[in-house]
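Students often ask why we bother encoding 3D structure as a string. The short answer is that it lets us treat folding as translation between two languages. Here is a chain of 143 residues written in the first language.
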Amino acid sequence: MKIRDFLGYDLMDQVKLIVSKYFGRRVKSYQIFCLDSSAYSNGLADRLRGIISVYAYSKCIGREFKIYHKEPFLLSTYFSPNKYNWEIHFDDICHIYPFASPVIMLDKFKPIRLNSLCKYFQHHFYTNEDWLPFLNKKYGMDF
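And here it is in the second language, the structure alphabet:
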């Protein structure tokens, strides 16, 4: 049995597209705070709390942190990178599982879920939670 017979023509074409897009291209393992039309987030203060939490988590595990904030406004309209370049271009974001995965932690989700994340791929965080007490205890940091 050939792979095409097993997957079908439409799925095989999708697999070819994915392979052609990512073959030979290394997906960078960013921790990305996302705010686009994919998930709901509360007000600006809640978003900033989520940004700080994801940044602190990125520092704890030694990964590069980026922000993709497009809705309801461009974050770069009001804030600009200073000592740390947090901006990311859309082309640098991978949207194909298993190279990237969304992590949705809104409204009282426990940050213990952070322990189960793979350390090699991109994670797109949608959160408004404060993880600092958990991170301080787990990693011995003082944020």
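Translate back mentally: The chain has one domain: 26-139. Keep this in mind for the problem set.
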